[in-house]
Design brief:
244 residues; six-stranded parallel beta sheet; alpha/beta; two-stranded parallel ribbon; globular
Length: 244
């Protein structure tokens, strides 16, 4: 039914806006849509809310934050296993999970098995204001880590929010991000292989150890403005409409 609805709406549209080149190719293959009709644009966020934040001060604890709706795309089990790996070697690194959803019960079972003492979980969907305060207190934000094709094809919404906040972001390496970066990775943005808890743990430890140097040169908001910001979204839409 969903495929039927998608095929019908896509065929009737003059323009289709999609968020990555990978998603664009997927639509072309699934529904035989002409490339000229599909326009890649950033998804956009509310930049009046997601503004650059000063870096959180280091007072002995390095706070790592993840939030989401607990869907398989997120790979939250990888985060939990990484926390367990760092529990003894880096007790000053603390993980905060926020969210609830589809795989939450499975995650609760994993936490119960591993019992990481450096991880806390607020199992609720919080308000934007509360989430913003959590980001303000965090030193490092986590993106997504699943090894699925869908995870490889998107730039997650939380990545937009973290980058716009000028925070350190660690997320999985993906073709979607590679297309945007074009071999230039800004200070403060880190990539690890998908579904690799050891690589994630090592990357977080590196970010903690190098925090002062990263803080002095962090450029994640600059990268957001150049590649993902509202101005880029407006230009993409304007060009598409003029061509139409």
């Amino acid at each position: 039914l969903v495929r039927s609805i998608e095929r019908r709406t896509l065929s009737r549209s003059s323009l289709v806006f999609i968020d990555t080149e990978q998603q664009k190719r997927s639509l072309c293959i699934q529904y035989q849509q002409p490339l000229v009709k599909l326009v890649v644009t950033p998804v956009g966020i509310d930049e009046s809310v997601w503004t650059p934040l000063p870096q959180a001060s280091m007072t002995g604890t390095f706070r790592v934050l993840f939030w989401g709706t607990c869907i398989p795309l997120h790979g939250i089990d990888t985060i939990i296993r990484s926390a367990k790996l760092l529990e003894k070697t880096h007790p000053e690194i603390c993980f905060q999970l926020i969210g609830d959803g589809q795989v939450a019960d499975t995650l609760a079972e994993l936490i119960s098995q591993l019992k990481p003492t450096n991880l806390s979980w607020k199992r609720v969907l919080v308000s934007a204001a509360e989430l913003r305060e959590e980001v303000r207190r965090a030193h490092c934000i986590l993106g997504i880590f699943a090894s699925t094709e869908k995870a490889a094809n998107v730039v997650p919404y939380k990545a937009y929010q973290a980058l716009a906040s000028n925070r350190i972001l660690v997320t999985r390496r993906s073709p979607a991000f590679d297309d945007i970066l074009q071999d230039v990775v800004p200070t403060g943005l880190f990539f690890v292989e998908a579904d690799d808890s050891l690589a994630l743990a090592e990357c977080i430890a590196k970010a903690k150890d190098q925090f002062v140097e990263i803080d002095a040169a962090i450029a994640t908001r600059e990268f957001y403005d150049l590649c993902l910001g509202r101005s880029i979204l407006r230009k993409s839409i304007r060009r598409a409409l003029e061509r139409l």
